[in-house]
């Protein structure tokens, strides 16, 4: 080693300063190569001796935890009473349901102001396609208030026979695509003949269509909340304009929906569903 060191010093002494720097870099690189080779040889020996685990020849696929089941979907279909149910300032019954089911289920509002069963029936295929990847667990159906308007008073009037057929067609369209989907019917609510200026909506006519709604729900073996009977005589307490629900009215309907779910579909109550992200 002493002789090698003397040779190295003699070699450096014969070089110019720039050449000395290059020479030293070459020596360092050579040392690193030799050190790497030594480490590799030692690792190979350790593997052969069973002292170390060899690196895999290919990257193994990571084992992923199973994805959680999607949250249940509650789909609400209806007219302006359902559409306004998302209004937080009115304590809308859809907004209250969304709060009840937060992180447990998604509550979707498809209410359309002014719509009737005649309007909704042809849209069922599009709704089925929309929810094909995630079928609704429960459809809450509130239609009939506009169907029940006086003939010739508006273009919304739907005759009783057609109303029943349309209701059945809407339900059947979902059931054919999603056999496990459950339904909850809400009858047309009350109207206040003294308050509602247009007089197209009359309380007695709403009651007649509420009976038709209950008939269809019974024939299809689905639960129904008879809002017309439950709110009778409370019009001035629960309506904002003689037709649409105020805060008290929305809270009342929300409570009735929750009671109906608990009675008919206890597996879909918030407490029965797991909390998810």
From TrEMBL:
UniProt xrefs under InterPro entries: Iah1-like, SGNH_hydro, SGNH_hydro_sf
Residue ranges of the TM segments: none
Residues covered by the SGNH hydrolase-type esterase domain: 77-251
Protein's recorded name: SGNH hydrolase-type esterase domain-containing protein
